[in-house]
Amino acid sequence: MALDKIKAELAHNVALADIKEVAELTAKISKNAMEVATEVMTALNT
Predict the structure, then answer these.
(1) Where do the domains of the chain lie?
(2) φ, ψ of residue 21 in degrees (nearest 5)
(3) pTM metric for this prediction
(4) pLDDT for 5-44, tens place per residue?
(5) 34-to-12, 28, 29, 40, 42 alpha-carbon distances in Å
(6) Cα–Cα distance measured from residue 44 to residue 26, given in angstroms and rounded to the nearest whole number
(7) Which InterPro entries match (predicted)?
């Protein structure tokens, strides 16, 4: 019984870590996309 609880908790923590990693990557991608958009706008305005 205790072992099952530990396994469930570990699985939950792994899922949270994966979600956090995906969120961090999404934030980086968004930042990069914003930088690219800014560069494109700058290039179009020159």
Answers:
(1) 1-41
(2) -65, -45
(3) 0.68
(4) 999 999 889 899 999 999 999 999 999 999 999 999 999 9
(5) 33, 10, 9, 10, 12
(6) 27
(7) OspD
